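Homework-ish question, so no full write-ups if that breaks the rules, but can someone show me the predicted structure for this set?
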Amino acid sequence: EAQVTQNPRYLITVTGKKLTVTCSQNMNHEYMSWYRQDPGLGLRQIYYSMNVEVTDKGDVPEGYKVSRKEKRNFPLILESPSPNQTSLYFCASRTSGVHQPQHFGDGTRLSIL
Amino acid sequence: AQTVTQSQPEMSVQEAETVTLSCTYDTSESNYYLFWYKQPPSRQMILVIRQEAYKQQNATENRFSVNFQKAAKSFSLKISDSQLGDTAMYFCAFMKPRPGGSEKLVFGKGTKLTVNP
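A: Not a homework solution, just the prediction itself:
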């Protein structure tokens, strides 16, 4: 089954404790992206990657890192999480071709205390 | 920068009736793509329908259709014969082609739709 898998689905942690949210897709997609969703703000792009070893900032990259060492994986790293990063996070992927829709993971609810 | 505006934070409709969700966007581009995504309580983001700006014909997917008015920069979603399972947050999104495939989705803030029995 074609899917984008995020882990964990839920995480409660404390300020300053490094964490990683994993994202994996099994569709051989070139393009992957991370979004955060906050009430009243919709989804905003954090980082994206057009292929292995090619990443770039989205609209709200501060406080986040990403890597793309393999085509299927695109982890989101919070080196020193802060309470303002409490949010719902989505990973998405799509194949090349602008008309192709993005496939979303099921989301990760992060709470930073 | 492109912006997407959904002016209705919440809406409700009776089961089996028709409802229209509004979306306007701001762009100076002539070639772009528009999408409606559905987010049910399960939090999944599900693509409902998409429209290419160069196509004049409005997209349709079963009970879902759009009214795309390019000159007015309007992209409304009509849901016919509403079902309880249509209860969800609906997001309108815009995508502009960029060189190298670096396109991103720009989302509106969403409209929460409740279908009442």
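Now go work out the reasoning yourself. Hint: Chain B has no helices and twelve strands.
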